[in-house]
Amino acid sequence: MKPIHFVSADEAVSHIKSGSHIHLSSVASVPHCLIQALCRRADAGDVRDLHFHHFHTEGPAPYSEPRYEGIFFDQGFFIGANVRPNVNAGYADYLPVHLGESAKLYRERIIPLGAALVNVSLPDENGMVSFGTSFDCSVAAVESADLVIGVVNPNVPFAYGDLVPLERFDYLVEDDAPLTTASFAEPTPVEMEIGRNCAALVEDGDCIQMGIGALPNALASQLGGHKNLGLHTEMFADGLLRLIKAGVINGANKKLDTGKVVASFLLGSQEVYSFIDHNPDVLMRDIAYTNNPFIIAQNPHMKAINSAVEVDITGQVCADSIGTRIFSGTGGQLEFVRGASMSEGGKSIIALASRTNKGRNKIVASLNPGGGVVTPRPDGHWFVTEYGAVDVYGRSLQDRAKLLISIAHPEDREMLDRQAFERFGPHYHNFSI
Q1: 75 pLDDT exceeds 70?
Q2: Are residues 165 and 210 in the same domain?
Q3: What is the pTM of this model?
Q4: How many helices (H) and strands (E) does the chain have?
C-alpha cells in the first residue's frame, strides 16, 4: 500500500472550479470540513455557481442558505429538515429521482460531476477504503467525478461491500469529526397498533424492507416472535438492529445475499455504526443495487413496508410533499413497491396513521392540490392503518374507495363515503365489496 499523503481541506477544495456540480456523501456522514472550506472560498469571493447534490444530510447546510445565493445552489435528491425551509423558499431546490436511479444520473453524465466530496474509513491492508454509513450514490460519484476528494475519518466504520482504492482519490484530507447520530421517539399507541397490523402480514422466512422512525420501530417491536427473516433495504436503524442481534433477522431464507444484511445508508445510534464495522454479515452496497426492483424481486416473499403523507380513496400515494410544499422526496418507495410486487409471494405495504397529529385525515377523497404521486394507484397493494389492513390490488376505483374508507378514522368515514358518492355517482352505494 502506498503511503497516504494528506492535504488541508482548503488546499483540496481550491481545485474545484466555478460552475461545478458537486456530490456530497450524505445522511450521517457529511464531509463538513470540506463544506466549511468551500464556504471560506465563497466568503473570499473565489468561487461561484456551485451546484450541490446529495441524499438528505444531517447537520449544518450552508450550501442551501440565502447568503450564498449565486454562489451555491443546492439540488438534493431527498430533502431533510436542514434544507427544507430554503427549498420551499426557492433558495435551494429538489431534484426528483428514484434514489436507485440517482447513481445513473452520475454514471451517464446526466449530471456531469465536477467533484465528489466523501467521507471514508481508514484503509485496510490492501489500500481499500469503505464509505461506511453512506454508500448511497457515493460509489457512482467517485467513479464518475472529474475530481475526487476523500476525507479519511477513523469514526467512519469499515463496512464491507462496494469498496474503493485509495488510488482513485485526487486529494485526501484528515478529519476525526464524529458521525451524526440520531434517536427516534418511542412509538405512540397508534403507531404500535399500526405495527401490529403490519406484522400480521409478515410471515416467518420473509425478506423485509422498511425505513427509520417511530413507525418502523413500532413494527420492528412486533416482529420479535418471527423467525428467519431477511433484510434487504435502503437503510436501517436501531429497531431492526435489535432484531438482527436477537437472531430474528438472519437472512437464512434469502436466495440473493443469503445470510447477509443488505443496505445502502444508515442513520441511528453509535451502536448501529459500530455493528457494521468489519462485520462480514453486513453488505453496504451502491444504491443502484439495493434499490433495483429486479434485484429486490429475486428474494422470495419480499415485504416492502413504506409510509405516506396521505393516500386518496383510489390508492394514489403521496409521500414527498404536503401540497406544493416539498417535505422529503420520492426516495426508493416505488422501487421497493415494484420489487416486492414482482417477488414470489411478495407484498407491498403502505402504512400510515388514519390522522395527522393535528387531527387531519390522511385517507382523503383527493390528494392535496400539488401533492406528488409517488406510488401510482395501479401499484397500490396493501394499505394499513391502526384500524386494519386492506388489499386493493385488482380492485376497481369504487371497490378501492370502500376498502380504504373502512380503515380510515371512524369519525372520517361518513364524510369520505359522501365524497365517494359525489365522485362516483348513484351506483356507488348499490353494491358491496
Answers
A1: yes
A2: no
A3: 0.96
A4: 14, 25
In one-letter notation, the amino acid at residue 371 is G
Q: 149 vs 19, 138, 146, 327, 427, CA distance in Å?
A: 17, 12, 10, 30, 64
Cell numbers that stand for 383 in this block: 394499505
Residue 234 bears catalytic tag: yes
**Residues of 398-419 as b/e, b for ≥16 C-beta within 10 angstroms?**
bebbbbbbbbbbeebbeebbeb
Backbone phi, psi, residue 284, to 5°: -100, 120
* Whether the predicted pLDDT of 212 surpasses 90: no
Task: Quote the strand ranges of 323-381, DSSP E.
Answer: 325-326, 347-351, 363-364, 373-375
At 4 the pLDDT is 73
Asked whether residue 2 is assigned to any structural domain, the reply reads: no
- The phi and psi torsions of 171 (rounded to 5 degrees) equal -140, 145
Q: Give the whole-angstrom CA distance, residue 110 versus residue 90.
A: 23
Residues 70 and 161 in one domain: yes
Sign of CA dihedral 284, 286, 291, 292: negative
Residues 137-162 have pLDDT tens digits of 999 999 999 999 999 999 999 999 99
Name the band, by pLDDT with cuts 50, 70 and 90, for residue 3. Answer: low
Domain that holds residue 35: 9-174
Out of 234, 310, 335, 386, the active site residue is 234
Task: Quickly tell me which residue has 436501531 as its cell.
Answer: 238
Residue 112 parent element (H or E): none
Q: E strand or H helix at 95, and its extent? A: none
Bridge partners (DSSP) listed for residue 214: none
Domain assignment present for residue 1? The answer is no
Q: Looking at residue 186, what is its pLDDT? A: 84
Cα-based angle 158, 159, 160 (whole degrees, multiple of 5): 120
